[in-house]
Amino acid sequence: MDKRRNKKRSNWNGQKNNQSKNQNQNQNQNNSEQKQKKVFQFNHTTYENEESKRERQKAIQEIKTREIICAKCGQPITELASSLCDKKSGDPIHFECALHEVEAGETLGEKEKVAYIGQGRFGVLYFENPRDQRKFTIKKIIEWEDREKTSEWRDELSGLYSKVE
Questions:
Q1: What are the Cα distances from residue 96, in Å, to 45, 93, 116?
Q2: Domain boundaries, given as residue ranges, for the chain
Q3: How far is CA 51 from the centre of its chain?
Q4: I need a labelling partner for 73 at 20 to 30 A (CA). Which of 42, 55, 98, 139 fits?
Q5: What secondary structure letter does DSSP report for 72?
Q6: Model confidence pLDDT, tens digit, residues 56-95
């Protein structure tokens, strides 16, 4: 029994286990192949000079320091990027104010909820199991913002942050 345990193992076809030698040979071959191949790398080039970057940052800071008042509640809007357009005037309003207005205009049944579904739309969602928020059906879609109509304040904001010209 002791001889069997101390016996150096060999592969099923009688070859000795020379994995370490084979691994070193494979690594040497891979290194020489990598030296022969040239690896293409993208060079990041910016066509915007430093002065225009500073001007853009200054304009962004100026927009952030402006005090924009919500058309619904009269409170200042701190995060302009998350605000929506007012349906009547087109001025920015808090997301929460728009959500409350949609909820007030809808009669919700049991297991129903109003939620933002993207692209300026709200939806009335029906949950089969209210504890499981993953499974729902959209009962009604409420268009809040017109897709073709863009507001000036949003164009100004997106123009400063957008990299595409």
A1: 41, 8, 10
A2: 50-161
A3: 29
A4: 139
A5: T
A6: 778 777 777 778 888 888 898 888 778 888 888 888 889 8
Looking up tokens 């001025």, which residue turns up?
91
Q: Which of 140, 106, 136, 108 is nearest to 123 (CA)?
A: 140
Distance of CA 65 to the CA centre of its chain: 26
| Residue 45, SS3 per DSSP | coil
Determine contact, residues 120/145, Cβ cutoff 8 Å.
Answer: yes
- What spatial distance separates the first Cα and last Cα of the chain, rounded to whole Å? 79
Entry pTM? 0.56
Helices (H), 37-151: 50-65, 95-105
Q: How far apart, in Å, are the Cα atoms of 13 and each of 3, 10, 23, 26?
A: 20, 8, 20, 22
C-beta separation of 99 from 114 below 8 A: yes
